Fold this sequence. Notes:
Strand order of the largest sheet: 4-10-9-8-7-5-6
Structural class: alpha/beta
Oligomer: single chain
Number of helices: 15
Helix content: 25-40%
Distance between the termini: 78 Å
Strand content: 15-25%
Shape: globular
Largest sheet: 7 strands, mixed
Amino acid sequence: MTERITITPTHRYRNNDKLIGIGNEFWDMSERNGLAGIVAGLDSGVLRTTEGHEFVADGHEFVNFSCCSYLDLDSHPKVIEGGLDALRRYGVLDHCIARSRVQIPAMLELEDSLGELFGAHVVCSIAASTATFGLLPLIASGHLGNGTRPLMIFDKNAHISMSNLKPVCADETEVVTSPHHDLDFIEDACRKYARVAYVCDGSDSLGGYAPVKELAELQDKYGLLVYYDDSHSLSAYGERGVGYVRTHSPVLDERTIVVVTLNKAFGTSGAAIVLDGYEKETLRIIERFGGALNYSQLLNTAAVGAGLASAEIHRTPELTTRQNALYRNIELFDSLVHTEQTGSTYPIRLVPMSDETVIEAGRRVFEAGFYVSPVFFPIVARGTAGLRVMMRAGQTEEQIRKLCAVLTEVGASAAIPAPGEAIR
Length: 424
């Protein structure tokens, strides 16, 4: 009998045995404690008086403090009507054919509107992860860039939608992982390699912004290409909601590529690739060879219409009003609970817990009428578990104060007022 070959994994870029073996224990604990797999409906009575983020599950009412709709635009009447209007205008939900073959004008209309908003070329995608899957291999091969295959540096904390592309990019070029925003590591690579591309979050899903100004210095000095996923700051930050990267980076040309989801603070669906300095020929390469960017899985017409409506809101003073409401709520939270993100405009706060206490703490918060996400390995490094709190413009002062009181009861650090400052 012929002996069969047993395959030994290399684990060069991922390790599912570790990922699932350890992480699944936390997920199972979350489900047992009612913190995962929740099926809940919006309370119709609450919906009339707030932005629609209070829920009821099996008779238990709770306020969702784990929602990425930071400006509550997902329930805005104009956004809802925008989706309906587009359906009426075009008379079809999905036009299922690759955009390089035949397309209706709907998505082109959205790309033009977003392009004007950002002051750049925009290519839309069904999701930010789909955009990343299409773009990073083209960067690795040099077809998106200056023609030179770069050393691809993935930030250690890069979102899984980016880090999952390591083995794909490694088929085209050399791939390494850097410590989180380690500028010395990146500059050392720039000295050694003819071309370097750095892949990171512009706004991190666990709180905080990338050092865009320092990275811009490396871009000017060495020609570094930086690929940002700035999804968490779109709409919530900057004039007309252009996000953190496009507000602060002095390098907005072919050396900076930004991908953003439209599902979070923008309040709709899909994603946008924001490109500066690229010619039409390069945009065609992206469209034709960017994988699922060109499949028949495009934004549906309702999503396009909702996106057009949200873009119009971004051009009005209402956006600033909602941003300021969000910032006031963040400031109130920071005055009551201390986290490493205290003092930032970033809408996510990570309340540290131990691996042993995070699930129990999350359960107690949920029983008190609030949902916050327990985060654990592999979402975060082992030993750095916590409760992820997401702030929104529509949250009330009473909701925030009650949540913070519960958080301090389960182990959060109460904020210490500055000398002479009254406790609010």
